[in-house]
Amino acid sequence: MCVDCAAEASPATDAIKACAPFRDLIADVSEVVGVPSALLTALSFKESSCNPNAENGISGAIGIVQLLPGGAGDGYSREQLKDPVVSLTVGARYLAKWHRRCGTWRGAIEIYNGRQTCKIRSSFGQKVTRIWRSIEKMESPRT
């Protein structure tokens, strides 16, 4: 996954390391759903530090990609949303849906994070995008 993870600590290297137990699952879900694996890794890291049991006591979001039981996670139990397969698949499908509507992954990230429009540029969107792009650079073979 990572060409040079021995590089200086950064949010991207932290994401790769934290999400390492889910590397194959993220790759599989990414391929099936059509979401870049580096983006799904960045989102998982930013949302939960890649902790499938994470629960946000304020918003009620659950799981590795922090799904809301009454939102993208509607129809799933709290325990199901803690299952990394369910969480990553549902989250990736939700992100892909918004990518189709917004036309960009950045716009999709904004909607994923609860924004009302694809155009708002939140700090959350900026951070996820920065981590995503850095992971992509780190994973690219050097020429």
Compact overview of the structure:
The chain has 143 residues and is an all-alpha fold. It has helices at 11-18, 23-33, 37-48, 78-81, 84-102, 105-112, 123-139. The chain has seven helices and no strands.
Layout of helices and strands:
Elements: H1 11-18, H2 23-33, H3 37-48, H4 78-81, H5 84-102, H6 105-112, H7 123-139
Helix pairs in contact: 1-3, 1-7, 2-5, 3-7, 5-6, 6-7
Listing every helix as H and every strand as E from the N terminus to the C terminus, the arrangement reads HHHHHHH
CATH topology: Lysozyme
- Low-pLDDT windows of residues: none
The biggest sheet amounts to: none
Q: Give the number of DSSP strands.
A: 0
Integer count of domains:
1
Indicate the structural class. Answer: mainly alpha
Strand proportion: under 5%
* Rg result: 14 Å
Distance between the termini: 17 Å
Average of per-residue pLDDT values: 91
CATH architecture: Orthogonal Bundle
**CATH C-level category:** Mainly Alpha
- Residues in helices, as a percent range: 55-70%
* Total helical elements: 7
Q: Tell the overall outline.
A: globular
What can you see in these coordinates?
The mean pLDDT is 91. It contains seven helices and no strands. Helix 5 crosses helix 6. The longest helix has 19 residues, at 84-102. The relative contact order is 0.17. The protein has one domain (11-137): Lysozyme, CATH 1.10.530.10. 55% of the residues lie in helices and 0% in strands. With 143 residues, it is mostly helical. The two termini are 17 Å apart. The chain has helices at 11-18, 23-33, 37-48, 78-81, 84-102, 105-112, 123-139.
